[in-house]
């Protein structure tokens, strides 16, 4: 036996608990959609409007993370379009778009395979979008996913973008029938503070995806776990416990899949024959951490910066929580932060509101006698994770560094 036979023997678990770990990858396309019959029905009814000559100009599809919005919306639209010649579906994910201009460019890219330079302006890009759509079937469903990520723009307001998309002259002139399906975590009208001319152009059709309940998570996870693990590798008790905890804490299918993957890895490391309740327990926090850290990586630079200030004070050997707005501001003004990153009080307040909407911080007002009313700020997760993420954020963030896109 060569050195390498021994090496590979050593690293190959004798009786691995996993059969096909990839089945637990949340990005892997599942065979079937479970527990979203009501939402699929609503989406299908909206699409069926095509046969009667009306599809609402906008549809808001919203709900917390990991509740099947992207999966169900794409699947139902794709299946409908493949049965209906008069309909085309285009899907655009706006997660990486920092500005409204780049969001419009991303749509253009999906339609034509090309992007335009900033000099053509938002109007220039939209003009080309309408030209491209002229050659499309009678109806186009445009799915704009993760649209709530696009709100940090110094040149255009969200209302400018939506006004062009819904009421743009080029579109009206050419008589283009477009239905824009907006997928996000919050209801957009509330989140983006759209002005009234845009609101009146939007329909109030919406489809809500609630967090999954235990039985629903069980039906989603069962077929995935059966593929992923050897038979009997996950005890019934561990399955029920994991599903219950995942539903109680998150209602999120993505996190639930991660939880069972990590629990399986723990069982393997400990040479256990089955995944036990304990393996679930030790990973509940690890799963939370993984999800939060990936959210932190995706934050725009200002948002991350403000979080480092919120978690920047120490007290008794620990990170001080909660902190006040004044403490946050004075941390940002301290010499640890370069002058060019100075945001100013109003910008910081705005960022804090965004962070609260994203569920990353909680704020409340304390009355402190003579000092008056003081705003308290606290992270909704272990504050140390911000510090742990810092180096990686600076290296990997798409929001820092040279901006060549626009
Ligand atoms: N009803 C379901 N049936 C089967 N698998 C599901 C279901 N819901 C979610 N999943 C699994 O969870 C993953 C995440 O779901 P999806 O991407 O649709 O969530 P989302 O609601 O769009 O979340 P986010 O708000 O974070 O974008 C899917 O890729 C799929 O693997
Ligand atoms: Mg999604």
From TrEMBL:
ATP binds at residues 67-71, 212, 224. GO terms for molecular function: ATP binding; ATP hydrolysis activity. It comes from the Archaea. Keywords: ATP-binding, Cell cycle, Cell division, DNA replication, Nucleotide-binding. Pfam families: AAA_22, Cdc6_lid. One of its GO terms (biological process) is DNA replication. Residues 55-213 form the AAA+ ATPase domain. HAMAP family: ORC1_type_DNA_replic_protein (MF_01407). NCBIfam families: orc1/cdc6 family replication initiation protein. Involved in regulation of DNA replication. Belongs to the CDC6/cdc18 family. This is ORC1-type DNA replication protein. It comes from Natronococcus amylolyticus DSM 10524. The gene is cdc6.
